[in-house]
Write a structure and sequence with these properties.
Largest sheet: 6 strands, antiparallel
Strand content: over 45%
Number of strands: 11
CATH topology: Jelly Rolls
Number of domains: 1
Order of helices and strands: EEEEEEEEEEE
Radius of gyration: 14 Å
Mean pLDDT: 93
Low-confidence stretches: none
Length: 113
């Protein structure tokens, strides 16, 4: 993990896709731009999304909204995808997988600067 005032490269999810998955929240209000990359194995069928929250920086977020146009289908096979967060205007992000069938594993990382 690398995290300082000007740069972060952190894992926000690393788990099985045998069930619906909600990754850890990560505070992003100090960053101007960022990306989230997910890489998965197996044959998962379901949707990945990015959720954001504007709850206070020092709070555990409870109010989440799916980022518009962030839904990406897993497609039933090995794959990867990058979400570009060109202008970060929210306090927290998290990675979500909604399972339809089958299984696999996923790792998702946030990089911000």
């Amino acid at each position: 993990m690398s995290d300082n005032q000007n740069y972060a490269n952190v894992s926000i999810a690393s788990d099985s896709l045998g069930a619906t998955l909600t990754g850890a929240s990560y505070g992003v209000s100090k960053f101007v731009t960022g990306t989230i990359q997910a890489a998965w194995t197996g044959t998962p069928t379901g949707n990945f999304t990015i959720q954001v929250s504007n709850d206070a920086d020092n709070a555990t977020p409870t109010n989440w909204t799916t980022l518009p146009s962030s839904t990406q289908a897993a497609g039933g096979g090995v794959g990867s995808y990058v979400w570009y967060l060109d202008t970060i205007g929210y306090a927290h992000v998290r990675f979500v997988y909604t399972r339809s069938s089958s299984t696999g594993t996923v790792t998702a990382r946030f990089v911000g600067k």
